[in-house]
């Protein structure tokens, strides 16, 4: 019989198929081959993007020329623009506002066909450090309230460009999904005086069956209330609200576990599409809150969201996370 | 500049690209060709499904044989099963329950390649009447709290079988998405003493620019706060909480506007994938609530949900609904 599971943070239910669980080979998913052609993110095509905001590059090279390793540029077709103040108005029963915010692109590598598993460890550390630096820079803008870093990889994940890149969006308000997550975490803290994410790490490390990998500072696991088959969360073991306030000594461990995660997924499913998101507390000039704990949510695109999910907010999960974690642990690296 | 719009019911924000709106030909979407092969929903293959629950058929034919026009069967791989009572338990910080509920399939037509636009008007009325009858039957089961009718059409919409069919799921609780919609509608009613959906119909019919079609009892429009390009809502003009308590004289008008909607979308985009959902109030033995108004939400699959949407709950809408409605109105039928 199917098992219903309820997420303790936002109250989301999922239906886990424990009767006829799907094996990795049961999923019909897209695997991409890298195409050639002109790519604006490739080495030598720097003039095809807006001027760079920041880069890690050979000090003997000029901005917007080759010689870089990580490069940050404004999104050429931004969802939001940095100019102006937020102005809200009513339109009958509706509300409208102008689109203030930032929308940047972090080009992870000059190589079109190198994803995170193909990079050297120190290159991944540099990429993570640039992600943090961009967030720390935008935090200074008093109009901005929330920063989201996310990666869409492959067409099924919504990537419009093939060259591996991460996006940063800074918003003038805390959007609905993080607001719900924060509220749920705060309610739990008020009731128990403990961080729900710290409790989750503790329970997962005790039960072990959903753990994929751990190192000194991070742990990766398939969450008990996964929404998607082979969903993976990467969480710092030590409580910290903000992704961007990570300590420099944490970068090597995060780089290792992120590389390990994507490598395992790609060994199982080939070059499939995926999204990952850095969940972090909203912008504030403080040392963080006791109730919120930053983490990465990684979602391989193996299934499609359909009418049932749209209509209910429930998710149908064909592979129990316990089994997914087992498959991922057993990957030969 | 992009325009941010806020949904007055659930507080969802969308970012509408009013600067560089996408035209219908700008979307890269899948269009399916019907395949041949053995289909369990086709005429003559009745033995390939579980025994039928209900059907509209020639009275001289036996159940589970040819001679039917609409046929309802249990889902062969149900997400939930009808046996047993709901039993919840805690697993550390998590909650678990068994999966009680109903999962039925309504086969809309015996013809593999006939979608709603290809049916006769009275055939669509019969299909709608069967949808209502199944809901009215399941309402009697005291364990069930919410019924969702939805259609996944085409692979991008999550359909695993090609033959046109609608699904019914009955749940032992009111799930997150409808609960939020109900709460928002109730809050609005408490503040204004008016139904927000009645107000929406009134405003749309006054402003006209998002209306696609109307008849005596129904109106179709692209909602001001669309989440998806070319999203369409079909709403009864007269207040009524429950889809399944529609009056028989409403079926012909609903059949006409549903056929008109899908025909227009398919003229613009070919045989693309889509989802639609019947949003209705939860099960109750009453005449309905003042604050909730049933309606259909129709979503053509032209874009993919990506990291930004997952991370924020915001949606990026490349075609403003005003423009989408104009394209849909101008379709030559």
Tell me the number of strands of chain A.
Answer: 15
Uncertain segments of chain A: none
Structural class of chain A: alpha+beta
Q: Kindly identify the CATH topology of chain A.
A: HIT family, subunit A
Under CATH at level 1, the class of chain A stands as Alpha Beta
Q: How many individual domains of chain A? A: 1
Sheet bearing the most strands of chain A, described? Answer: 10 strands, antiparallel
Give an overview in words.
2 copies of one chain form a homodimer. Chain A contains 6 helices and 15 strands. Chain A is an alpha+beta fold. Chain A has one domain: 2-Layer Sandwich (HIT family, subunit A). In chain A, a hairpin with a 3-residue loop joins strand 10 and strand 11 (218-221). In chain A, helix 1 (121-138) crosses helix 4. Chain A starts with a strand and ends with a helix. Chains A and B meet through strand 1, strand 6, strand 8, strand 9 and helix 2 of A and strand 1, strand 6, strand 8, strand 9 and helix 2 of B.
